[in-house]
Design goal:
The chain is an alpha+beta fold and 191 residues long. It contains five helices and nine strands; from the N terminus they run αββαβαββαββββα. A hairpin with a 2-residue loop joins β7 and β8.
Length: 191
Amino acid sequence: MRIVKLSIALIISGFFAHANAADSVDLSKYTIKQSEPSVGTTIKRPIINAGTVPLDKRYADLSPQEKAILRSDFAQMKESDEPPFPAKGLMPILKELRKVHELLGLQYKGALAINVQIDSQGNPSNVSIIDSPAAEISEVTSVALLGQTYKPAICNGAPCAMEYHFRAELVGPKTDTLSPTSAQSTIPQSK
């Protein structure tokens, strides 16, 4: 009986360790940099940690290892299955996110996690905000996500409906080092 309890405890702790590892994925491998460098420098610094796969590639252009990274976000996905992915890659979405992040003066930092429901034809239908540093950030990013077409997911060899998981981390230089134009910009509040 004691061995069974120990085995169950190990399985449960392994599950939570895997879940926590998935939640703490290092998104800093690929970054989006500032449009304009901060005051006193010519270096454009990263302001968005954007992912673990190349940002400018479509799913078909990703390496087998990069595709495996995307599949690992889905617990039950077989090696022959594929998750949904933005048809033009991540860059169009991230450009919109950079724009709003800079318009808000890079004042918000933190995780952004949005799930998008994608149908079997690759059309997005709705979003779920999982985590966001600010309502304006999640609103603009949601609009960008809903404005994309997607490579549909593949389940057992056929297109299927599935959620696409968009993840990013807003980072960046201190706001007091920004150029005067980007530090003073704002976007209208939604009503």
